[in-house]
Amino acid sequence: MGVVLGLIVIAAGYYIGTQMAGGLIDSVGGTVGVVVNAIPLYLLGILISSQGQVLKGSLDVAVHTSPFLGMKQEARVVWLD
After folding, report:
1. pLDDT at 9 > cutoff 50
2. pTM for the structure as a whole
3. Contact (Cβ atoms closer than 8 angstroms) between residue 25 and residue 13
4. 68 C-beta neighbours (distance < 10 Å), count
5. Pick from 62, 66, 63, 67: which is nearest to 76 by CA?
6. Quick count: other Cβ atoms within 10 Å of Cβ 36?
7. What is the Cα–Cα distance from 39 to 63, expressed in whole angstroms?
8. How far apart are CA 22 and CA 73, in angstroms?
């Protein structure tokens, strides 16, 4: 979806640039396309990564405090051996 959005923004910038006959507008459209996609997708990646770390941490705590698991079983669950 991000790639499609970026292509639409770049295409719109290119179309506007050809209508105004200016090379600067083409580069501005490309830059806007990169910014529109790069920053939100980078932030989304950070959020997804941090959520994965939170889930991994909660699993680790649940396994560590479980009275029903032995050391080998704990290691198998946490490290997925």
Report:
1. yes
2. 0.54
3. yes
4. 5
5. 63
6. 16
7. 36
8. 67
